[in-house]
Design goal:
With 231 residues, the protein is α/β, with parallel strands linked by helices. The chain has helices spanning 41-48, 74-78, 96-105, 111-124, 140-152, 170-185, 197-203; strands spanning 2-10, 16-25, 30-34, 56-61, 64-65, 81-85, 158-162, 189-193, 206-211, 214-219. It binds adenosine-5'-diphosphate (ADP). Adenosine-5'-diphosphate is lined by residues 11, 13, 15, 17, 35, 37-43.
């Protein structure tokens, strides 16, 4: 369970990115976060990751108010989350295998666990045959699949995705969303910020619509619409 309770965020430059935002995502849900550029979607993701702190309000992860965590506890909190970004952020000089393995090394997994788990997760995203390739040898869709593998390799309870299909054409975006769907069916909660109206409309999941730092709408089986305009 992840939750915002009356969260506001004002950045140092005075921009109020979030204004009294409250919502809760239960275990196993798949939720889309939509809204125009600047509406506050990325800020929400950064607050869950403790990359930013709210100006006021509370952020809960599995019932724990994460603002009360000590600095040394934050890495443990981050393990509850896998994150996928629009710009893949892979290590360019590391193979596909090593990119995913690195995420396990940083949490102290043994070489044996790594040898067992990395091929498993690469198969899950359809990249078993590309383990020895380097990112530049892969298509955009394949690179994003490596990122998804990296995000889920430590079995996080929640997958946060910030415009994960923003750099992909529709067909490839579809493949990524199919993988997300399967990850969700296996029990992982998903919160995905997106501008891809056709994905949101085809999936009929819960949709939280942000407008100027506030929740404008929060609806099950929602369609993609922002104010009167669609993207
Ligand atoms: P979205 O992801 O919906 O595009 P963001 O959360 O990135 O929205 O941004 C919300 C608002 O906060 C925007 O006005 C943006 O310019 C501002 N903002 C985001 N990050 C920062 C930052 N680190 N410092 C100052 N302003 C920021």
């Amino acid at each position: 369970m992840i939750e915002f309770k009356n969260v506001s965020k004002e950045y140092k430059n005075g921009v109020r990115a979030l204004n009294d935002v409250s919502f809760r995502v239960d275990n196993g849900e798949f939720v889309f976060l939509i809204g125009q550029s600047g509406a506050g979607k990325s800020s929400i993701i950064k607050l869950f990751m403790c990359e930013e702190r709210p100006t006021s309000g509370q952020v809960f992860v599995d019932g724990v108010d994460i603002l009360g965590l000590k600095k040394k506890q934050i890495p443990f909190l981050r393990r509850s989350f896998g994150v996928v970004f629009q710009d893949f952020r892979l290590l360019p000089k590391a193979t596909v295998f090593d990119n995913v393995a690195f995420a396990m090394q940083v949490v102290g997994a043994s070489p044996r666990e790594i040898r067992r788990r990395v091929p498993e997760v690469l198969s899950q995203v359809g990249l078993a045959a590309r383990a020895r390739s380097y990112p530049h040898q892969l298509s955009g869709g394949e690179q994003q699949r490596v990122c998804v593998a990296r995000a889920i390799v430590n079995k996080p309870s929640v997958l946060l995705a910030d415009e994960p299909t923003g750099n992909l054409d529709n067909e490839i975006a579809h493949e990524i969303v199919d993988i997300f769907n399967e990850i969700n069916r296996n029990g992982t909660t998903i919160l995905m910020a997106t501008h891809a109206d056709w994905i949101v409309n085809s999936m009929q999941k819960r949709v939280i619509t942000m407008e100027h730092g506030r929740i404008a709408e929060d609806r099950e089986g929602g369609d993609y619409h922002i104010g009167n305009a669609s993207y």
